[in-house]
Amino acid sequence: MTFRTLTDEDISIQDNAIRGTNEDAAMSKLSSVNTGYIQDEYIKYFLKRPTKRSPIINIGSYVRNKGLDTLIIKFLEIEDGKKQIVSLGAGSDTRYFNLKSSSRKFHKYFEIDFPENTAKKVAIIQTNKELSEIIGDDARIGSEIYASDYCLLSGDLREFIEDLVPRLESNGFDRSLSTLFLSECVMIYMDPMDSNKIVEWIGTNLNTTMFIVYEQILPNDAFGSIMLQNIKLRNIELRGIHAYPNLESQKDRYLSRGWIHAEAVDMNEVYDLYIDPKEHIRISKLEMLDELEEWHLLASHYCIAWAYKVTTESQKVLYDSVKFENYKNKRPY
Ligand SMILES: C[S@@+](CC[C@H](N)C(=O)[O-])C[C@H]1O[C@@H](n2cnc3c(N)ncnc32)[C@H](O)[C@@H]1O
I need a labelling partner for 98 at 20 to 30 A (CA). Which of 2, 46, 73, 261 fits? Predict the structure, then answer.
């Protein structure tokens, strides 16, 4: 599959639509919170009003959140010195606030998004006492936020190396620290030429690093083509999906660029095997999920991929611990 060359006007229309996907992600998360799937005290502050989503979307947000949180917390628990996290295309993500309020230890949390989205986030944090207290009194807040353990930068990820890396570094990003990069439904919107520059730069310039990605896969079956058509109706293309259409290619993306270990699983696997059976029982009581077949189809079209790069065997043992626990044989039913 090839994409036609985009004009500046096309790019600006698409960028605008891509920025809008943040609102959608936040609404789905809030609906999942309000229905009882997820606990998140902070996401409500980032939306004007809640919208109720279908059970499939609620459960999808739950598995996405639970799966990513499991790996992120395991990364933070590795005893390998100070940790920093860089969230690419963070949008209205509230993970920093949730990690801090649950007393998770990290050195610094960086977030990057387009200026239009960071401006909204800055304004909300600035006027919300609860959020600004978490960030701390010493924060400098302007069009971006610079605090002791948090930094919100505006920029275009297509200019990661030339623009964002220098600004990350002048705000405390330290290449020598163990660093987690997150792309939660972000790199999929980018041309793989641009997103791979980020993957390659990290692999070349950091010795101890991990990447966690959540994004769509399987564009070529019937459900996948409808998914792409629906997205296209909103002026959006998943520009990365044909380069990384399945779990194998998701892993190869890192392994072929010098990362030493990579894994990828689809969301059916996460839900069926890696969610505690007690949670299955709890969430089955929240609302009726009639469309089981549709849920499985949707879940097979999203994946979590993760990869790491370390330099010693002892670190390899530590970073191998960032994986899901398999509950297959622990089901009471
Ligand atoms: C689907 S939203 C996901 C937001 C957040 N990661 C989450 O999961 O809640 C995608 C985000 O990526 C951002 N994004 C996409 N391409 C970007 C780029 N080239 N530069 C900066 N941000 C970008 C969008 O503005 C948007 O906020």
Answer: 261
Q: Which residues fall within 8 angstroms of residue 118, CB to CB, at 6 or more apart?
A: 111, 112, 143, 144, 152, 153, 154
- Whether 43 is in the pocket of ligand 1, judged by its Cβ within 6 Å, is no
Which structural domain, as residue segments, surrounds residue 63?
A: 8-279
Closest residue by Cα to atom 8, ligand 1, is 184
User: pLDDT digits over 308-329, tens only?
Assistant: 999 999 999 999 999 999 998 7
Q: Is residue 272 part of a domain?
A: yes
Distance CA 88, CA 113 (A): 7
Q: Which helix (DSSP H) or strand (DSSP E) does residue 84 occupy? A: strand 83-88
Give the CATH number, domain containing residue 37: 3.40.50.150
User: What's the 119 CA to ligand 1 centre distance in angstroms?
Assistant: 14
Residue 266: inside a domain, yes or no? yes
The CA–CA distances, whole Å, from 284 to 30, 36, 105, 275, 289 equal 19, 11, 33, 13, 8
Residue 112 within a domain: yes
Model pLDDT for residues 190-243, shown as the tens digit of each residue: 999 999 999 999 999 999 999 999 999 999 999 999 999 999 999 999 999 999
In a domain, 223, yes or no: yes
Q: Rounded to an integer, what distance in angstroms lies between the CA atom of residue 235 and that of residue 86?
A: 28
Structural domain total, the chain:
1
- The finding on whether 147 has its CB within 6 A of some atom of ligand 1 is no
Task: Indicate if ligand 1 lies below 6 Å from the C-beta of 18.
Answer: yes
Is 91's C-beta closer than 6 angstroms to any atom of ligand 1? Answer: yes
114 Cβ inside 6 Å of ligand 1: yes
> What is the value of pTM for the model shown?
0.96
Q: Residue 65: CA atoms inside 13 Å, Cβ hemisphere, count?
A: 24
User: Which atom of ligand 1 has the smallest separation from the CA of 182?
Assistant: 6
DSSP code at position 87 = E
